[in-house]
Design goal:
Blueprint: E1 5-8, H1 12-26, H2 37-43, E2 55-64, E3 67-77, H3 78-84, E4 88-96, H4 100-116, E5 121-124, E6 136-139, H5 155-162, E7 166-177, H6 184-187, H7 189-201, E8 204-206, H8 211-216, H9 219-230, H10 242-255, E9 261-265, E10 271-279, H11 282-288, H12 296-306, E11 312-320, H13 329-343, E12 348-350, E13 354-355, H14 359-363, E14 370-382
Parallel strand pairs: 4-5, 11-12
Antiparallel strand pairs: 1-2, 2-3, 3-4, 5-14, 6-14, 7-12, 7-13, 7-14, 8-9, 9-10, 10-11
Helix pairs in contact: 7-13, 9-10, 11-12
Length: 383
Amino acid sequence: MTTVTVSQVTSKKEMRAFVRFNYELYKDSPYAVPDLLEDTFETLDSGSNPAFRFCEAAFFLARREGRIVGRVAAIINRRANERWNKQEVRFGWIDFIDDLEVSRALLDTVEQWGRKRGMARMVGPLGFTDLDPEGMLTEGFDQLSTLFTIYNYPYYPQHLAKLGLEREIGWVEHKVFIPKGEHEANNAKYFRVAQIVQQRYGFRLRHFRSKKEIRKGGYIQKVLGVINRAYANLYGYSELDEQQMQWYADRFLTMLDRRFLSVVENAEGEIIGAGICMPSLSRAVQKAKAKLYPFGWWHIANELYFKRKHQILDMLLVGVLPEYQDKGANALFFADMIPQGIKCGYEWAESNPQLEDNLAIQMQLKNLDYCDHKRRAVFSKEL
């Protein structure tokens, strides 16, 4: 068998091949949701993504006989390394055919790249920040993926184990069924708690009449500020600064359904918690073949604005400030979202990945019908 060669991406043509490889590898999978090309190009572009102000990155393609057989990004997040007192090189956007020589060549390249820059550990899959897809799928290969998470074939984690990487931490994802009829959550629980905390602490929900109101008031940035504090002590979290918040706000607003932006304020009108949900775009992006143009935008717009019957609601972000997490503020979020989900005809909500040891957030679902249907993990290796 011919040798695998790995080379760094140095041109726009090669970057396009880097991004498209994921689609080519998974084009026949009914479960994979491909990277949305335009968003991925922007994320990987040092001139567009503000994370490059404190991150260094390189992108690599593996080839055999001139054919692309794998890809990987090597990333050093200096802000996260300083925050957690580590010397880590991250690997992300990793894909490869089922050939151990290919996966070994890709990870060896990341290892060498990191060593040259003084790194002591390799860890991944991780992106630039925690709002990038992270964690390799280890269970749930027969479940539809989401636009904001990684899908991979079952052989991926098997390769990593053979190459000496060890599981470092895991996430679980839930399928949360929208309550119907006499279900306890629909009947009383969240609504009763929400009413109590509103009366006791003066908490209230803020609703929005338009995206213009959300943009003008800078509410997405304010929500991300809450997320910064709520997630600060979670595994590997990289704090977002003002420029990053603005960048993410511009991206979120494009797809945001104002009915599913739930903002909780205290008696003084300060935001103390928030949740962002949106209609699942998984099937729409599959139909669009990962491209917005020339016609892919129609499938996205149809799902967001015109489709009358929806099935899946994606729970993107949920966070409550630490000092309010034991005061029932999260109940207002669920009391707000459940009626909207019922009204719009959703069957279930797809949770964002939740750390396995973050029992507090998982306990928020205890009064709903749900099942764990996916798991993912980050793997590491000492260099």
